[in-house]
Amino acid sequence: MIKLDRTPKPVELTAELQVALTDEFKSTGKSVWNVDFIKKGLLGFSNDKCCYCEANINEESKYLEVEHFNHKDTYKDEVLEWENLLPSCKKCNGTKNDHDTKLEPIIDPSKIDPKNHLKYWRYRIKGSDEFGKLTVSVLKLNDQDRLVKKRFEIGNAIQEKLEQLNELTDDYISGVQTSTRRKNRVVNGTKDLMKEGLPTAIYSATSAAVILTDTEFEALKSKLTSLGFWDAELAQLEIELNKTALKLEK
Ligand SMILES: [Zn+2]
Predict the structure, then answer these.
(1) 144 C-alpha to center of ligand 1: Å?
(2) Is the pLDDT of residue 122 over 90?
(3) How many Å lie between the centroid of ligand 1 and the Cα of residue 187?
(4) Percent of the chain at pLDDT above 70?
(5) Model pLDDT, residue 68
(6) How many C-beta atoms lie closer than 10 Å to residue 129's C-beta?
(7) pLDDT digits (tens, 9 = 90+) for 127-169
């Protein structure tokens, strides 16, 4: 989970339409929020990802559910309040179900930065305070099959890639392979890998945390720095990753 910057309410959702649709929901129970401009607006500020688990939900919007942070059956007046709507995958939406977020608050990633309340521990997300712990529990953020295994696969792939990049760099340093092509392969490979931890990428909180805390990354950075290859783009990527990453507890 990462902090999301909510975009302004879609212009199509006028005050009049909001009232009319909210009334329609109250009298018919119809899913009045299932309209394209709302879905499009929600996907826009979440980079096409679920706001809780960071899975991709943009495959023709078929996995997207309009999530009511304050539950729609309990807080009927808020069913079309833009501030109450979030983009969620079916799993997270179903898991959170009718949890009452006013009685027992959890993290709303459009308002609160998750990394202030959550941390990583061996591919599991842990609350660093009671608020974080309740969030993990309500959203089942350590669902074994769906999330923990996925994080492990991502972490493993990143570690492999970091080892490869270190080997390629070692060849360059030892003079085995000093071509510009090799230099570009190492620098661009590092950039591509780091981009997996940007907010636009799926599961970015995991990727960013793994990259920044892996000893192979420290080694690679130090080698590239001494070669003069750690350029402004790489430095900027590192800053961006620090914003996304959940703190890793060792
Ligand atoms: Zn999800």
Answers:
(1) 14
(2) no
(3) 33
(4) 98
(5) 97
(6) 11
(7) 999 999 999 999 999 999 999 999 999 999 999 999 999 999 9
Which residues, chain by chain, have CB under 5 Å from ion ligand 1? Answer: 50, 52-53, 89, 92
The pairing of strands 247-248 and 64-68 is unpaired
- Ligand 1 centroid to 206 CA: how many Å? 14
Token pair 């591919």 is found at: 123
Q: What's the CA angle centered on 201, arms 199 and 204, to 5 degrees?
A: 65
* H/E element, 159: helix 149-174
Return the amino acid letter for 208. A
Taking the centre of ligand 1 as the mean of its atom positions, its distance from the CA of residue 119, in whole angstroms, is 18
- Quick check: 118 pLDDT over 60? yes
- pLDDT tens by residue, 60-72: 556 899 999 999 9
Give the Å distances, CA to CA, from 53 to 8, 10, 184, 237: 23, 24, 34, 22
DSSP 222: H
How far apart, in whole angstroms, are the C-alpha atoms of residue 97 and residue 148?
21
How far apart are the CA of 125 and the centre of ligand 1, in A?
Answer: 14
Per domain, the residue ranges of the chain are: 15-139, 144-245
Q: How far is the CA of 58 from the centre of ligand 1 (A)?
A: 12
